[in-house]
Design a protein that fits this description.
single chain, alpha+beta, Profilin-like, Helix Hairpins, Heat Shock Protein 90, 6-stranded mixed β-sheet, 5-stranded antiparallel β-sheet, 13 strands
Length: 473
């Protein structure tokens, strides 16, 4: 069945269900009609037995055969061995029952059918065997079942014909319904095949004004196609921008090498060339590391970290790495730990990127502030990095976290324009938000957390907002 088309399986299942239902209904009707006909025959047998029983003498003969025959039933008087002592009416000369049947007779009469309904018996009877006490004889009274059997055979034929007709109608109706139900699915399949062949901008044709399983599937598939197109467009743009950014250092490397090969140089001149090549290689390496970092963000597991303690470590490392800027980097944090739901390395990389951006594209001093919103219970851990620079232009602030986006004045400075993109990806992966604020203009990147108010500061501020776990959980 699994190899058959879905439409065929649906129709077959519908027909099978109808077959079971019709068979059960037909069996019930047949049983009720048979019960009614047998009850009528049993009434005739009871009446005939009541008339004939007093007419049987101790020797096993009927004293008034005319009265017994007047009942319209056939009758026989048998001894214990099953031999016929007397008979009359429509009963044949041979015994209607066997000695084994006589052994089953007790105080209650035994009723049984002789001859089968199908195939048709020559002389079908319904008999009632009664024990005659104290003579140890048996009275067998029988009526012909010809009319009863004919009625049941006619009923079976009609039920069979009606059932076959109902199954034929059910098959046609089931096939029509299955085709109608699967027609939208086939349209979706053809449209999906067109999309798979490279057609762009196509959507599934979902009927308006309907809300069933197939239309909901169509809307879901259209949403999926739109999401895939957006993701594909983002990846295409990323590849184009990455190729553009990689082309510049590679072109410089190639040009410097070709220039160095034009003439013979001294060792000192080669050292100068190597230093220039080292700068380009470093830029290319940093760009490759940033690209790899973007691809590995989703695999970073969640965690819990003391934000205050980690930020203090990050600032101390930055001061040791840049001693000339040590007095230009300050930290403001409250007393006690401030837990945050994020991987420690992700938070360290994010804050380090923000501090490096503040020094590279802003102006010292750089102030780092760690606080809780609210002060107790579950809430948010906030890390703010502010500098005294000119800030990000308002028209660029909404796109500042996109890949390779940089202000015109920042293109001459080191960097590839991926720091904020990596930071947003890390914060969003932890369920947090990155806000950029300058001169009253605020932009939100990642998950929007409206419960945390923005700090209205004239300085350029980048705020990392992280969910704070409940200390009681």
């Amino acid at each position: 069945m699994s190899r058959l088309p879905l439409r065929v399986r649906l129709v077959a299942g519908f027909i099978l269900a109808m077959l079971v239902l019709l068979t059960a209904a037909g069996a019930f009707v047949y049983w009720r009609v048979e019960y009614a006909l047998d009850r009528g025959l049993d009434t005739e047998l009871d009446q005939a037995t009541a008339v004939i029983t007093p007419l049987v003498d101790p020797s096993g003969h009927v004293t008034s055969p005319e009265a017994a025959d007047a009942t319209g039933a056939g009758w026989q008087v048998l001894d214990q061995s099953g031999q016929v002592l007397d008979s009359g009416g429509t009963a044949p000369e041979a015994p209607l029952v066997t000695a084994a049947d006589l052994d089953q007779v007790s105080t209650e009469p035994l009723t049984k059918d002789i001859g089968k309904l199908l195939p048709i018996a020559a002389k079908p009877y319904r008999v009632q065997v009664t024990s005659l006490q104290p003579s140890d004889h048996y009275l067998v009274v029988g009526v012909r079942r010809d009319h009863r059997d004919e009625a049941l055979r006619e009923l079976l034929l009609q039920l069979t014909l009606a059932g076959l007709g109902a199954l034929a109608v059910a098959a046609v109706v089931g096939d029509v319904l299955a085709r109608a139900a699967l027609r939208p699915v086939e349209r979706y399949r053809r449209r999906a095949a067109e999309i798979a062949e490279g057609a762009n901008g196509l959507r599934l044709d979902v009927p308006e004004g309907r809300d069933d399983e197939v239309t909901r599937l169509g809307h879901t598939l259209n949403d999926m196609l739109a999401a895939l197109e957006r993701a594909l467009e983002r990846e295409r743009r990323f590849v184009n921008e990455a190729s553009h950014e990689l082309r510049t250092p590679l072109t410089l490397l190639k040009s410097r090498i070709q220039l160095a090969q034009r003439r013979r140089r001294t060792v000192e001149e080669h050292e100068v060339v190597l230093e220039e090549l080292a700068v380009d290689v470093t830029r290319l390496t940093d760009l490759a590391e940033h690209l790899l970092a973007l691809g590995a963000v989703e695999g970073i597991p969640a965690g819990v970290v003391d934000v205050s303690e980690l930020i203090a470590v990050v600032i101390e490392r930055h001061r040791l790495a840049h001693p000339e800027l040590a007095d230009q980097l300050t930290l403001e944090a409250g007393a006690g730990p401030i837990p945050g739901a994020i991987d420690p390395q992700a938070l360290e990389r994010t804050v380090s990127n923000l501090i490096d951006n503040a020094f590279a594209h802003g102006a010292p001093p750089v102030r780092v502030r760690v606080r809780s919103v609210p002060d107790e219970g579950p809430g948010w851990a906030v890390v703010e990095v502010a500098d005294a620079g000119l800030g990000i232009p308002s028209d660029l602030m909404d796109r500042a976290t996109e890949r390779f986006v940089r202000a015109d004045v920042a293109r001459a400075r080191p960097g590839a324009g991926l720091g904020l993109s990596i930071s947003v990806a890390l914060i969003q992966n932890a369920g947090g938000e990155l806000r950029l604020c300058y001169a009253g203009h605020h932009t939100s990147h990642g998950h929007r957390l409206p419960d945390v108010p923005c700090q209205h500061s004239p300085a350029m501020t980048a705020a990392v907002i992280l969910p704070r776990p409940d200390p009681l959980s």
